[in-house]
Amino acid sequence: MQIQGQAALVTGGGSGLGAAVARELARLGARVAVLDVNEAGAQAVAAEIGGVAMRCDITDSASVTAALDAAQAAHGPARILMNIAGIGGAKRIVGRDGSPAPLEDFERVVRVNLIGTYNMIRLAAARMVGLEPLADGERGVMVNTASVAAYDGQVGQEAYAASKGGVVSLTLPLARDLAQWGVRVVTLAPGLFATPLMKELPEAVQQSLAASIPFPKRLGHPEEFAALAAHVVINGHLNGEVIRLDGALRLAPR
Predict the structure, then answer these.
(1) Local structure of 184: helix, strand or coil
(2) Domain count for the chain
(3) Dmax of the chain from CA atoms?
(4) Which family does it belong to (predicted)?
(5) Is 133 exposed, middle or buried (0-12, 13-18, 19+ CB in 10 A)?
(6) Which residue numbers are catalytic?
(7) Residue 202 to residues 50, 147, 198, 213: CA-CA distances in angstroms?
(8) Range of the domain at 41
(9) How far apart are CA 215 and CA 104, in angstroms?
(10) Is residue 55 part of a domain?
(11) Cα gap 235→245, rounded to integer Å
């Protein structure tokens, strides 16, 4: 699918990898709706790229529906969905005092990263499948965000790894389910990237993390993630696949 002129939705577009994806799609000619629970961040990115911003809680169906309605009113039906929104969190299953990890912490991470991603997909897909097919029969493209933690989860990352592992496992059945309507589904699994959250860590910690990457020995640039996300849209034969973007990194237990 050519990006030029298409309406695109980017969740988590108010910062980090989502903001980089929103900028790249706009650079390539898409009409971008920036969706984020942080409305101020979404508005700032949208103003920069000439897009529109909507507050959107991906775990809330009414919030998502309202955002999709507003984006469609502004830009027309979206054929591109970039699911970038997500949260982190680490909690050892048994604390130093012997107490079990709070179940609420696990539920929150899974609800945002996995259920929220599925919620966006189901509501956006219901609209995409009704669109007129393009020349090659394609109606839409969805790109989801997992993590290398889906494969190499570290100590204390049970919730995060499980949530991202769920996104990985959704990919192929979703692609098979939506194939009859010409909607592709691909997931990206980034490693260590220089996002605002990462930059809050001490410089020495950032350098140590970068040194653990085989090559190149640096944190990933958000623009590299965005370039791959855009390529997935353009390359019509990419479907049902999970792509690691990590410089050959394999996370250690700690």
Answers:
(1) strand
(2) 1
(3) 62
(4) Belongs to the short-chain dehydrogenases/reductases (SDR) family.
(5) exposed
(6) 160
(7) 34, 22, 9, 18
(8) 7-189+225-245
(9) 38
(10) yes
(11) 17
- Please check whether residue 219 lies inside any domain of the structure: no
197 in a structural domain: no
133 in any annotated domain: yes
Question: Could you report the per-residue pLDDT of 122-153, keeping only the tens digit for each?
Answer: 999 999 999 999 999 999 999 999 999 999 98
Token digits of residue 75: 């830009």
Reported as a single tens digit per residue, the pLDDT across 196-216 is 878 877 788 788 889 999 999
In the prediction, which pLDDT does 207 show? 87
User: What is the side-by-side strand order in the sheet with 242-245?
Assistant: 52-55, 31-36, 7-11, 78-83, 140-145, 183-190, 242-245
In contact, 164 and 189? CB cutoff 8 Å: yes
Domain CATH code at residue 147? 3.40.50.720
Q: For residue 188, what are its two tokens?
A: 């990206």
Amino acid in position 53? A
Question: Does residue 1 contact residue 29 with C-beta atoms inside 8 Å?
Answer: no
